[in-house]
């Protein structure tokens, strides 16, 4: 009769995945996707914004309370000084805010997060609705020159970045933020245009 030979096959070990280029990744569904600048986050400088306003506010309130309970001169004068200090301190505390601008290609949105004493306020804008990113020059009250960074939306709305700063942000940081946003939006618009053309081509073929 025929000779039967049994061969035992050992399971293959899972081989290491091949290295991918730095700008390519594979998601959980196995789809190949370009990394690029999928997410860009811009935050206001804490030491120049909310930390300063909160610190100054607390200092003025404490100083006002000190004048209120430790009488140096007449009670009327000390009361006026203390109320003025406490009032200015509360104003500084209430205007303090932490801002974050999160540009996300996956959701196609810009998320503006503002954290104040009232809580966290989140506003979303479509990336496709951003028309322009611009730095504008203006004269400050002291006669000097300063620069502001704005996002212009197609609706005509204008968003000012670093708006929560009590101490001005240097022009170099604003220029870098503008260049980063422009690069991010250019890549996003290129990908969106490519996908739109592909979808239109598939629909036309169908």
Distinctive features:
elongated, 2 domains, 3-stranded antiparallel sheet, alpha+beta, 206 residues
How would you characterize the overall build of this protein?
This protein is of the alpha+beta class and 206 residues long. It folds into two domains: 43-96; 97-197, no CATH class. It has helices at residues 50-69, 75-95, 171-205, and strands spanning 24-26, 32-34, 39-43, 98-104, 109-116, 119-126, 130-139, 145-153, 158-161. The protein has a four-stranded antiparallel sheet with strand order 3-4-5-6, covered by helices on one side. Strands 7-8-9 form a three-stranded antiparallel sheet, with helices on one face. A two-stranded antiparallel sheet has the order 1-2. Strand 1 (24-26) and strand 2 (32-34) form a beta hairpin.
- Approximate strand percentage: 25-35%
Largest sheet: 4 strands, antiparallel
> What's the total number of strands?
9
Q: What multimeric state do the chains show? A: single chain
Low-confidence stretches: 11-34
Average of per-residue pLDDT values: 75
Provide the gyration radius in Å. Answer: 29 Å
- Overall structural class, as computed from helix and strand content, comes to alpha+beta
How far the N terminus sits from the C terminus, by CA atoms, comes to 60 Å
How do the SSEs run, as a string of H and E? EEEHHEEEEEEH
Major beta sheet, strand line-up: 3-4-5-6
Number of contiguous helices: 3
Number of domains: 2
CA-based shape: elongated
Estimated helix fraction: 25-40%
Transmembrane segments: 45-69, 75-96
Keywords: Membrane, Transmembrane, Transmembrane helix
């Amino acid at each position: 009769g025929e000779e039967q030979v049994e061969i035992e096959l050992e399971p293959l070990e899972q081989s290491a995945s091949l290295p991918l280029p730095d700008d390519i990744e594979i998601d959980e569904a196995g789809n190949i996707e370009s990394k690029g600048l999928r997410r860009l986050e811009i935050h206001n400088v804490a030491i120049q914004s909310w930390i300063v306003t909160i610190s100054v506010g607390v200092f003025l309130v404490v100083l006002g309370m000190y004048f209120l309970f430790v009488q140096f001169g007449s009670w009327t004068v000390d009361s006026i000084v203390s109320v003025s200090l406490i009032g200015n301190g509360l104003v500084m505390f209430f205007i303090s805010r932490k801002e974050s601008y999160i540009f996300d290609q996956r959701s196609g949105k810009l998320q503006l997060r503002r954290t104040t004493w009232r809580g966290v306020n989140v506003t979303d804008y479509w990336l496709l609705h951003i028309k322009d990113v611009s730095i504008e020059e203006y004269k400050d009250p002291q006669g000097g020159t300063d620069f502001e960074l704005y996002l212009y939306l197609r609706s005509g709305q204008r968003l000012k970045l670093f708006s929560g700063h009590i101490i001005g942000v240097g022009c170099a940081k604003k220029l870098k933020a503008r260049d980063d946003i422009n690069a991010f939006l250019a890549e996003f618009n290129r990908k969106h245009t490519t996908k739109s053309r592909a979808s239109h081509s598939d629909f036309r073929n169908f």
